[in-house]
Specification:
It is a single chain. By secondary structure, the chain is of the alpha+beta class. The strands form four sheets. Strands 7-6-8-9-13-14-5-15 form an eight-stranded mixed sheet, sandwiched between helices. A three-stranded antiparallel sheet has the order 10-11-12, covered by helices on one side. Helices cover 38% and strands 18% of the residues.
Length: 457
C-alpha cells in the first residue's frame, strides 16, 4: 500500500493535524516528537487494510486523499476563475482594516480577526475557533473556542508553532452550532476533505479562514528565539512573533518572550535572530517541504502578508486577501463601502508577487525535491508539481542546503538543550548556514557573467 498514512508517518511527512487521531483513537495518537513537532504515532495494534485505506484517505500528506483542486472544485462549484498559484478566486485585495484596533492587534492588516467578528455580528456563526497565545498544558499556542461574547482580538497573531485540530474536532462534534475555523492550508485540506465524509462536520463548519503559510515550525523555533533573547527554554512562558516595530520595514517581525516569572524581554527584529531568515528553512517540518498549496486553496478566504515593494515602508502592516466564498465577498465589499476596510482590488499577479519566495520554493524547489526522492527510489507524497521542471544548478544547490539546514537545525538545537549551551547552537548552526554562500568558483562565474552583461549593455 504505497503512499498510505503508514508511509507518511514512517517517512516523516506527518504535519500533526490530528484528523487520524480524532477518527481512530485506538490506533493513532498525536504527540510532540523529540524535536518539538506534533506528529502522529500509529499503534502497533493490527489495523486491517480496509481501515488503513479509510484513514489514509483522511491524511493530508497521503496519496489516498483527494488533492486541493478536487476539493475546491466540490466546494466552490460556482467559482470559475482560477489561478495556478491561488487556486479558485472571486476577487483579490490588498490593504488593511480601518475599523477599531484590528490592524494594530493583527499580524499585518488585521483582516483575520475582523472577518471573524463580522461573522458574529451578522449572526452567521455561533463559534469561532482560532489560535491563542497562552500557555496551556506546556504548549505556547493552542486552538481555542470563542463565542460572540468573547473578545476576538484576544486571538493570536501568527503562530509559528505546532498545533493540532484533534481537540477542536472533539468540541465541534460535542457542541451543535455554526463554526468558523482559522487554518493553515494543509489543515484546511484535511478538514474540508474530512467534512465531506462526516455529515456533522460538514453541516457545522460553515467557513474556514485560510492563513497563507510559508511553513510550520517546531517548538524549537520559539525556544531558540527566546533563548537568544535571554529566556532559557525551561523558563519560557510565552512568545510573540509579530510585534510591530515603529519605523522599521513591515517584514521586520518584532519578537519578544516572557519568562515564568512574568518578565518580558525587549522587542527585537526577527531578522537579528538566528532562525529569523525564512529562506534558511530552520526548525521546519519536513512535510512543509512537500506542500504545493501556498495560500490555502480550499479555504473560503486566504489572508496573508502583503510583502510588496511599495508597502514595505508601511510599518503598520497590510494584508493580501483572496476571496473564494461569495458570502465572505459580500461582507468584505460592505466593509469597504462602509469605510471599515481600506482594501484595493488587485489582480492575482499582485498576490503572487507578494508570495514569490513561497511560490518558487513550492514549484521549482518542490520539483527538485521530488526528483531527488524519485532518483533514490524513495517514496514522497504525490504532488501537483512536475518533478521534471527545469531548475538551474545554483537554485538546486539552495534547495539542497535548505533541506540540510532544516534537518541540522532540529538536531543541533536538541543537542544544545541537552548540554544547556546556547553557544553550541549558535556555533554549529552558523556552520550550516554558511553553506548557502556561493563557492569561490560560483563567485568567479557570477563575476564573469555580470562583466559580460555590463559590456554588452
Ligand atoms: C505558520 C505561518 C506561516 C505563515 N507564512 C506566511 C507566508 O509565507 N506568507 C504570508 O503572506 N503570510 C504568512 N503567514 C500569515 C501571516 O503571518 C498572517 O497571519 C496573516 O497575514 C493574517 O494577518 P492578519 O493581520 O489578518 O492577522 P489577524 O487579524 O491577527 O488574524 C490572524 C488569525 O489567524 C489565526 N492564526 C494565527 N496563527 C495560526 C495558525 N498557525 N493556524 C491557524 N490559525 C492561526 C489567529 O488566531 C487569528 O484569528 C503565516 C502565518 C503562519 C501562522
Amino acid at each position: 500500500m504505497k503512499g498510505s498514512i503508514k508511509d507518511v508517518i514512517e517517512n516523516d511527512y506527518c504535519i500533526g493535524c490530528g484528523i487520524c487521531a480524532f477518527h481512530n483513537k485506538s490506533s493513532f495518537t498525536i504527540q510532540l516528537d523529540k524535536f518539538g513537532m506534533l506528529k502522529a504515532n500509529m499503534s502497533t495494534n493490527e489495523i486491517s487494510n480496509e481501515e488503513l485505506i479509510e484513514i489514509s484517505a483522511l491524511c493530508p500528506f497521503s496519496d489516498y486523499i483527494q488533492n486541493e483542486d478536487s476539493i475546491s472544485e466540490k466546494i466552490f462549484t460556482d467559482v470559475k476563475t482560477k489561478d495556478p498559484y491561488l487556486g479558485k478566486y472571486i476577487q483579490n485585495y490588498v490593504g488593511y482594516v480601518e475599523e477599531g484596533d484590528y490592524r494594530e492587534k493583527g499580524s499585518s492588516g488585521g483582516m483575520g480577526k475582523w472577518l471573524i467578528n463580522q461573522l458574529f455580528v451578522n449572526e452567521e456563526i455561533d463559534y469561532a475557533i482560532q489560535v491563542v497565545n497562552q500557555k496551556v498544558k506546556g504548549e505556547l499556542y493552542t486552538y481555542q473556542v470563542f463565542t460572540k461574547d468573547d473578545n476576538i482580538l484576544e486571538g493570536a497573531k501568527s503562530a509559528y508553532y505546532p498545533i493540532s485540530l484533534e481537540e477542536t474536532l472533539t468540541f465541534i462534534i460535542n457542541n451543535e452550532g455554526r463554526y468558523v475555523v482559522t487554518t493553515v492550508p494543509c489543515f484546511s485540506k484535511a478538514l474540508r476533505n474530512y467534512a465531506e465524509k462526516h455529515p456533522i462536520l460538514k453541516e457545522r463548519i460553515k467557513y474556514t479562514i485560510g492563513i497563507i503559510c510559508g511553513h510550520l515550525k517546531s517548538t524549537g523555533f520559539a525556544e531558540s528565539f527566546a533563548w537568544q533573547l535571554g529566556v532559557e527554554p525551561k523558563n519560557l512562558k510565552g512568545i510573540e512573533f509579530r510585534d510591530k516595530i515603529p519605523g522599521r520595514k513591515a517584514n521586520e517581525k518584532g519578537v519578544f518572550a516572557e519568562d515564568t516569572y512574568g518578565n518580558k524581554t525587549k522587542v527585537v527584529s526577527s531578522r537579528d535572530l538566528l532562525g529569523g531568515n525564512w529562506g534558511h528553512n530552520m526548525f521546519k517540518y519536513k512535510a512543509c517541504d512537500y506542500c504545493d498549496d501556498i495560500v490555502g486553496e480550499t479555504t473560503d478566504v486566504s489572508i496573508g502578508d502583503a510583502w510588496l515593494k511599495d508597502l514595505m515602508d508601511d510599518d503598520k502592516g497590510n494584508n493580501v486577501v483572496v476571496v473564494r466564498n461569495r458570502r465572505i465577498g459580500k461582507i468584505i465589499a460592505k466593509g469597504i463601502s462602509d469605510g471599515k476596510l481600506n482594501l484595493k482590488a488587485v489582480s492575482p499577479e499582485v498576490i503572487n508577487m507578494s508570495q514569490a519566495g513561497g511560490i518558487r520554493h513550492r514549484r521549482e524547489g518542490l520539483a527538485y525535491r521530488l526528483k531527488q526522492k524519485s532518483n533514490k527510489g524513495l517514496w514522497a507524497p504525490e504532488k501537483r508539481v512536475d518533478k521534471n521542471l527545469k531548475v538551474s544548478r545554483s537554485r538546486e544547490k539552495i534547495y539542497k542546503v535548505r533541506e540540510d539546514v532544516r534537518d541540522a537545525s532540529h538536531e543541533i538545537f536538541f543537542e544544545a538543550k541537552r548540554r544547556n549551551d546556547l553557544i553550541f547552537f549558535k556555533k554549529n548552526i552558523l556552520k550550516e548556514i554558511k553553506k548557502f554562500e556561493p563557492s569561490n568558483s560560483s563567485k568567479i562565474i557570477h563575476k564573469i557573467k555580470s562583466t559580460i552583461i555590463k559590456l554588452i549593455k
